[in-house]
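**User:**
Everyone, produce one record:

**Assistant:**
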Amino acid sequence: MFFSKERDSSSKYAPLALHADGEDSIATPEKHSFSEYDHSSSSSLVASDNLSALAPSKPSQLPKLILYFSFALALLSAANIALFPATLSKYLAYPLSDSQLEALPYGDARLGLDRAAKMIPTPQVYHQAWPDRIARVSRKLKNAVWGQGVQVYVTVEDSTIMRFPIASTGVNACALSWRPPPEFSARAKDVTTKGDITEIEVWQLIAPSATSAAVPSNMDELDYDNLSYSTLPVRGELLGVLDLTAKPNSTTLEFACPSEADKLMVEMRCQRVACHVSFMQIDMAPRFGFELMSRRRE
């Protein structure tokens, strides 16, 4: 009786649920197990769908297509090689006439070089002039006269006067240039140099000296056989500096050529200590010495 009472007191009763038709129903464990089974089965189906999506796809058909294309290309090449001798013999048996060849469309073989030629600037043409007058003067011996000759003698105390003809082709840009003798020629020994010869000054002479006994009216009437330092013409501007050690040559910057004269008269002098340059400027091969470069500058 004790146990039955305790069981009765501990028992709990759940209310009955009503169906749509009004009948009572009791939730049994069997129904709960079936619902749980349905839920687990649906979850397993979703998981299997995800696994199928993650599974690798079937191998592509691209390798087979490449193989088929390569095989077709090989067959086509073999056919072309087999037909080439027959095609070549046919063309050799019936060559094209000149009129048929002229009728064929030909491309321009220049590939636009005719347009490129218009873009290339016109090459600069320089006129070279050798001095037609050379005379030596000395600042130490101001009245000494050496006369006109071919000797170039430049030191700290001596200067060389040169006159260059200017080309009559409308040139307006000039420059003085030094051309050394070829290194392995016999004339390389004809030049004597001492000290620092990297700065030989080139001065323009613009007017006759007022101290000469017979003052010439212009530079063209200057007597080079009686020229001395005391009768040296008036200096103008410094035209440039020449480095006689430079290879293959040394050239001053361009300056304006005299507009109203057909001659350019300059003085070569050196201000460096122990500077010495001497040689005979003779017009013979191989040529070396001072020369005038002139051109037409647009």
